[in-house]
Amino acid sequence: MSTLFNNYARRPVHLVKGEGTVVEDANGKKYLDFTSGIAVVSLGHAHPAIVKAIQAQSEKLWHVSNLFESPEQKKLAATLMKDTHFSHSFFCNSGAEANEAAIKLARKHSGKTTIITFDQSFHGRTFGAMAATGQEKIKQGFGPMLETFKTVPFNDPAKLEAAIDDDVAAIMLEVIQGEGGIHAVTPEFASAISDICKSKGILCIVDEVQTGIGRTGTRYAYEQTGLKPDILTLAKGLGGGFPIGAMLGTAELFDSFGPGTHGTTFGGNPLAVAVAQTVVDHVFAEDFLKDVQEKSNALIRKLNECLPPERFDIRGNGLLIGIDCKEDVAPFIRQAEEAGLLVVQAGSNVIRMLPPLTVTEEEIDQAVTILTSILLVPTTI
Ligand code: PLP
Asked: What is the residue range of 233's domain?
């Protein structure tokens, strides 16, 4: 019996090293990693700039408490918020923690308690983030949830409108639902959310834990939607593999998070910040994001060329792409792994491809060849 709890359905592969998009298991077998540790390894495995940053910082200072000044956190915050409408940041260690901070800030600032979230959303596994999540299977067995989350259908303006009352502090959404199956907010729904938030004084929280930091071809995915969130949450790709999360907020929210209202021991420590600064300096460079968009176009074009639309629906943006196969994809994912390609599921019917943002066109070609050879095997004899 394992010394570990059984809370992950682990695949029987032990990965021991990686470089760029390629990872290697303990038997020396190589794989193209189109999971990126689920949208984490944004610059690929063992990127030389990250290795250098972590080495340099580890020789100076690993950790100091947030009770001390941190010009490094201020610089990272300024980089994240440059040319945005955000003016303040808070650093933590994970996506769920960033969302907990957002939930607390929205409630404290508004003095209200209801937060509206959406069916099939995913916001994390801590109690607040779990209660916010619009998937029953995530909540099963844990007893009563926090009662002040209301979950309504995604992309349905009338149902959202009907859920609004005087106690709504915030509307919280992913602009592309990642875990829920790669479903993007429609322009009409984004505009309805904006109108409701503006007219009723409700805060808009956008969870970009999965979509942020260049994953969808722009710094943040909300930039492609017309939404102007009051609070934005980040994690995953921000640290390129080192744990760090962040919450960005507007100037109006500043006074609601005074000393003692919220905190974390590790959040934004010097090692994490040094790595994240390196990641964002690379990803936010204009040519880098243009390159992500070009690779995204190539990936989507190739998938569309190979996979017939009557059997497959290709969705997503940037390098967060879902192939809805309209059947359980677990067997396909296992076969891809055997053939040397790592991909992950999103919902039961969707194969999610999220390679490092540094993936090459050649690697995209190889991945599409492997995947299409598996998906196009006739399902009936
Ligand atoms: N929010 C979104 C949109 C996510 O995709 C995830 C993780 O998959 C989380 C929050 C939770 O992040 P973490 O696992 O870092 O707590």
From this structure: 50-283
